[in-house]
Amino acid sequence: MKPFTMLSTLLLISCGGSDIKTDDSGPGNGGGNGEPVVPSCSWFSGDNCWKQAIREADDCLPVERTEGTFAPDYQTCSFDDGSTLELTGAADFDSPYAWSSLNERGFSVVDADGDECVTYHASETAGSVEWSISTDSGTIRYTADDPTSFEGVLTCPNQSSYLLDTATLSCPDAMDFWPFIAHSASGVYLSYDLQGGDSPVQVFTCRTH
User: Which tens digit of pLDDT belongs to each residue from 89-146?
Assistant: First the structure.
């Protein structure tokens, strides 16, 4: 099977031209009252909860990101430094996405001391999609009513939330700091990266042999 790559993209809306309130406060907290706001362009160029999550993941994950090896049941993957990848359900390398079910999928990377470093969970149906990623500062959530559309809501650990849409491409730094989770799979490996920070962060790469 030739490699397949899926990008779970967080598409953030443009600064202006919307009936939704715009956050012009820079890289601050946005709609902390639970109502989503349109992030200003400085959300990309400054600090934000996504960049913080990437930094925390990078600090927690092994310095040397070596490839891990799946156990025979394809539910765990072990690394040389003693850390472990635990999957929600088993990997299925006969599937294009390498997941036995796209409706429920996820993972946790646990360090050698047994502490969770990065946790990801996603669920998808014909009518909605939701995923979350957790690091030391808390959980970032993304929800959308239509899995095929580019509009959804990103909620930071402090409960500030942002309306996400492709119109934000007008922001000068949008492409350089475009938050997304990159997923690659083939018949022998599964890999996840976090992108949209100062540099991409490899969460894991695991092979069957």
Answer: 778 877 766 765 656 789 999 998 999 999 999 887 777 888 899 999 999 998 888 7
Q: At 98, phi and psi to the nearest 5?
A: 65, 20
- Residue identified by tokens 């650990």 is 157
Rounded CA separation 202/173 (Å) = 22
Please report, as a single letter, which amino acid is at residue 1.
M
- The domains of the chain are located at 4-207
Q: Closest Cα partner for 80 from 184, 169, 204, 199?
A: 204
Question: Residues 87, 106: contact at Cβ < 8 Å?
Answer: yes
Alpha carbon separation from 110 to 114, 132, 135 (Å, rounded): 6, 17, 11
pTM higher than the cut 0.90: no
